[in-house]
Write a structure and sequence with these properties.
mainly beta; five-stranded antiparallel β-sheet; 30 strands; 2% helix
Length: 351
Amino acid sequence: MFLTLLLTAHAAPVAVAPDYEANCQAPRWSRDGSQLSYEVNYHERKVVEQYIWSPGVEPRQVLPASRGLSGISAGFESAGGEMVVHELSWAPAKMGSFVYAASGSDRDYDLYLDGGSPLHPGPGTDGGAAWSPDGSWIAFTSARTGQGDLYLLDVNALERAPKRLTADATASELYVAWSPDSTALAFVGHTRTGDNIYLLDDLRYPAPVPLTTWQGTQTRPSFSPDGKQIAFYSNHEDNDRFDLYVLSLGGGEPRKVATDVVMNADGPVWLPDGERLVYVKNDDERFDPIYVGPVDSPRAARPVASGTLGNGDHALVVGPDGLSYLAVAAQGTEANQKDRDFKRIYVLRID
């Protein structure tokens, strides 16, 4: 009930991040909604900080440890320095952990566990980790062989080297997303001629299948709650804008849900009913409003009275009370006409 209590006394959205001299971005709820992570991007310094917020508690900064391979419950030592710490992915709530990517001044990114140290570091960048819903696997992208490929870590055997899932010499695999039942992965195959969405539905014998074959960029796949549909962004109609699409894994062409949207860092956001999506319209005159739209009736989309302006990255969670809560990075609120220099993280109820 903590989120209900937090918002009951506030008709307006609640700011949960302090004032930083930088933009907040990429809010991500823990699976049970008890915590919220977000990034703070100091663009000019090329530094990204990662924080964890809980109601009534000062946000804590996430910093990587500085010693060898360890388990989920390992001790913690701050490496400090000017770093990029980002791309956090939560484990199931019962595990009480998360994984993220971090780099030092050399910008050689490795994966870290909360309270732990690097997971099988190698040459080149590791990042874009996604923890499976059942807690068994961590999928990520690595350039350790010179090409951006997908790898898989067994959470129950972290001492083992990661399993390589893709080996396409003409593409880099990015933006991996798990199906709700933890049996399949969707990802983006990035090539010189364009980006498309792929499905990998057998982790034992991986053989990716293309789901789109369009020109341009198709990106940020996101499974529906029942695992039967995937939402994504595409600019194949117009290189200067991104539209929101949904495709059925049962077959058929992708369907356009909305035109000219602001891309979310973690891909399209589904409501729990699996019939609607939350998205931000790219509309400067109306300060990038938040919309809810049915996937099968795009014309029935309606704006959300969020009270926030200049909306961007957003994340949704169903709280212990069964209600849905949206965290959004926004430039400010309708009620506050003053500080709008940087984006902050706000939380609001959404139906």
